[in-house]
């Protein structure tokens, strides 16, 4: 016999319908009460459904990694900030890379010395043919330089001792060659850049290039291989093989006396000043630590690694998990993050992206704008008297401001947390202390005091105007003869820190606060708080 279909089934046949059906003798009052109860039950059920839905959405968001992008012009300190993240969150991996960074530091040392040697050659050539038109100071691009913030000195005359010193340092050129070859894959991924924005000297081709390694290249493997090598001469913990025949440590060690003599020579210092070169403010400067970094068993410290300079091409990514219970002295015991950590509610994946900041590389940034939690934008304050390497017409401070404006007003980033690091504060302080006048290049600064406090707060205000104020303002920089007049209608929160990201201790504190802020915002977005 065929079973009755659902439509054929009466409520008498359906046990559930029978169970919930109203009693046949229900009075009008009872009916009204029943309908009211059913209405309330439905409301409760809908509220529970909505809560479950909300929690599901939040969990989904919780599971996706927190993404942070580091932005800023070239040499602003992005990769150095990434190294700080690594040092804090993956110290073992950071340590494992010491051998590779040691090679970069050796190259940085050689490059600084080479700058001096090339300068000596140029000075010698111009003294042999003393024509005003060929002198470095009168080079055609001189007009594009910012006005000198300190008095220009006459170029000194080099003695035969200087020339002997230069000859004795010849082996360093081989060190440079061999380190270049080892660090770079055969394709040769160097991008030509000028040696320094303050020199327009006719230097040899090699000296005008800055070493840059594509992030996808396995340059660290050239040295990382040593990790598996178990030789007795090796510091296995640091992964450095001091007896490696290709290691240039011995040559550098043997050249220490001459390098030190060169760097501390008064005539050489005058020559540098006459050409407006302050090596001590440049990236990858180790000449004040020559004895230590050329020691036979030199192992780079954390600070050395942060100071090492290697230009980024491409994008590097650092992943880590924010562990529960990691100590943050700044997090108050009752704060949300502490509670979340204590309750072990939060073990989130983090991804920090570091991109190349040179002008030609900025087009590669946009694909990373999607789905970002925060951008840490680095604007170095110290190069207020320098122009861009890639565009000698543009002041570096002005470039940072315009870049910041482009990020603040970018349509894909309206909901992204923007955190500004006004960086290289240590170099800014040193420059101001050396008597370099801020208002010589930033004319709009007027006659305000030439102190760190006044100049840095002035720039904080300028950057802040784009995000948290309405109105117009200007920054006058004569090198470009441009008045950077801007207006802003935005009122986003303005998170700003004065940083020196080569300083491990202060940067640790700032990054912990930044992580706290990002987690907080992320939870707020997920409606968890
Ligand atoms: N003294 C000092 N040096 C800094 C500071 N921040 C960065 N540097 C140095 O400046 C140089 C450039 O820093 P990077 O982190 O390589 O710059 P970047 O923004 O990654 O540059 P690109 O890769 O070219 O885009 C490095 O030698 C750093 O050690 C700082 O606050 N103070
Ligand atoms: Mg970089």
TrEMBL record:
<dbReference type="InterPro" id="IPR011025">
    <property type="entry name" value="GproteinA_insert"/>
</dbReference>
<dbReference type="GO" id="GO:0005737">
    <property type="term" value="C:cytoplasm"/>
</dbReference>
<dbReference type="GO" id="GO:0007188">
    <property type="term" value="P:adenylate cyclase-modulating G protein-coupled receptor signaling pathway"/>
</dbReference>
<dbReference type="InterPro" id="IPR027417">
    <property type="entry name" value="P-loop_NTPase"/>
</dbReference>
<keyword id="KW-0460">Magnesium</keyword>
<dbReference type="Pfam" id="PF00503">
    <property type="entry name" value="G-alpha"/>
</dbReference>
<keyword id="KW-0807">Transducer</keyword>
<dbReference type="GO" id="GO:0005525">
    <property type="term" value="F:GTP binding"/>
</dbReference>
<dbReference type="GO" id="GO:0003924">
    <property type="term" value="F:GTPase activity"/>
</dbReference>
<keyword id="KW-0342">GTP-binding</keyword>
<feature type="binding site">
    <location>
        <begin position="423"/>
        <end position="426"/>
    </location>
    <ligand>
        <name>GTP</name>
    </ligand>
</feature>
<protein>
    <submittedName>
        <fullName>Guanine nucleotide binding protein, alpha subunit</fullName>
    </submittedName>
</protein>
<feature type="binding site">
    <location>
        <begin position="306"/>
        <end position="312"/>
    </location>
    <ligand>
        <name>GTP</name>
    </ligand>
</feature>
<keyword id="KW-0547">Nucleotide-binding</keyword>
<feature type="region of interest" description="Disordered">
    <location>
        <begin position="127"/>
        <end position="158"/>
    </location>
</feature>
<dbReference type="GO" id="GO:0046872">
    <property type="term" value="F:metal ion binding"/>
</dbReference>
<feature type="compositionally biased region" description="Basic and acidic residues">
    <location>
        <begin position="28"/>
        <end position="48"/>
    </location>
</feature>
<dbReference type="InterPro" id="IPR001019">
    <property type="entry name" value="Gprotein_alpha_su"/>
</dbReference>
<dbReference type="GO" id="GO:0001664">
    <property type="term" value="F:G protein-coupled receptor binding"/>
</dbReference>
<keyword id="KW-0479">Metal-binding</keyword>
<feature type="region of interest" description="Disordered">
    <location>
        <begin position="1"/>
        <end position="48"/>
    </location>
</feature>
<feature type="compositionally biased region" description="Low complexity">
    <location>
        <begin position="127"/>
        <end position="145"/>
    </location>
</feature>
<feature type="binding site">
    <location>
        <position position="312"/>
    </location>
    <ligand>
        <name>Mg(2+)</name>
    </ligand>
</feature>
<dbReference type="GO" id="GO:0005834">
    <property type="term" value="C:heterotrimeric G-protein complex"/>
</dbReference>
<dbReference type="GO" id="GO:0031683">
    <property type="term" value="F:G-protein beta/gamma-subunit complex binding"/>
</dbReference>
């Amino acid at each position: 016999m065929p079973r009755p279909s659902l439509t054929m089934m009466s409520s008498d046949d359906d046990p559930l319908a029978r169970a919930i059906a109203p009693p046949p003798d229900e009075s009008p009052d009872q009916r009204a009460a029943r309908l009211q109860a059913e209405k309330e039950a439905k409301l409760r059920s809908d509220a529970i459904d909505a809560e479950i839905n909300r929690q599901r959405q939040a969990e989904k968001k919780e599971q996706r990694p927190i993404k942070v992008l580091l932005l800023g012009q070239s040499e602003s300190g992005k990769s150095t900030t990434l190294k700080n993240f690594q040092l804090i969150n993956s110290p073992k991996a950071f340590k494992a890379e010491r051998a590779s960074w040691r090679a970069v530091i050796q190259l940085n040392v050689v490059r600084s010395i080479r700058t001096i040697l090339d300068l000596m050659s140029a000075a010698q050539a111009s003294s042999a043919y003393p024509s005003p038109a060929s002198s470095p100071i009168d080079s055609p691009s001189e007009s594009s330089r910012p006005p000198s913030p300190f008095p220009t000195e006459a170029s000194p005359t080099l003695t035969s001792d200087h020339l002997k010193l230069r000859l004795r340092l010849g082996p360093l050129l081989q060190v440079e060659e061999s380190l270049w070859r080892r660090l770079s894959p055969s394709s040769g991924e160097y991008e030509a850049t000028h040696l320094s924005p303050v020199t327009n000297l006719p230097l040899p081709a090699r000296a005008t290039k800055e070493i840059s390694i594509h992030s996808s290249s396995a340059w660290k493997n050239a040295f990382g291989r040593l990790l598996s090598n178990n030789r007795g001469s090796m510091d296995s913990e640091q992964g450095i093989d001091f007896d490696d025949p290709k290691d240039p440590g011995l040559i550098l060690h043997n050249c220490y006396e001459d390098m030190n003599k060169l760097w501390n020579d008064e005539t050489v210092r005058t020559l540098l000043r006459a050409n407006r070169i302050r090596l001590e403010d440049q990236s990858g400067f180790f000449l004040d630590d020559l004895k230590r970094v050329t020691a036979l068993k030199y192992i780079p410290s954390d600070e050395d690694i942060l100071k090492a300079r290697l230009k980024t091409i491409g994008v590097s990514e650092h992943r880590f998990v924010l562990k529960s219970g990691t100590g943050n002295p700044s997090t108050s015991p009752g704060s949300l993050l502490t509670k979340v950590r204590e309750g072990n509610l939060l073990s989130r994946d983090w991804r920090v992206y570091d991109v190349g900041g040179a002008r030609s590389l900025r087009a590669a940034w946009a694909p990373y704008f999607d789905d970002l939690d925060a951008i840490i934008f680095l604007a170095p304050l110290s190069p207020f008297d320098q122009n861009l390497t890639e565009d000698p017409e543009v002041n570096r401070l002005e470039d940072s401001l315009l870049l910041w404006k482009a990020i603040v007003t970018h349509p894909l980033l309206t909901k992204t947390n923007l955190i500004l690091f006004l960086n290289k504060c240590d170099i800014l302080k040193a420059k101001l202390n050396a008597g370099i006048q801020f208002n010589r290049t930033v004319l709009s600064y007027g006659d305000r005091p030439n102190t760190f406090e006044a100049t840095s707060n002035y720039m904080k205000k300028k950057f802040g105007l784009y995000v948290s104020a309405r109105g117009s303002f200007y920054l006058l920089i004569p090198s470009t003869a441009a008045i950077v007049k801007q207006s802003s209608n935005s009122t986003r929160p303005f998170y700003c820190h004065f940083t020196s990201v080569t300083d491990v201790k202060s940067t640790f504190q700032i990054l912990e606060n930044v992580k706290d802020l990002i987690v907080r915002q992320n939870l707020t977005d997920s409606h968890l708080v």
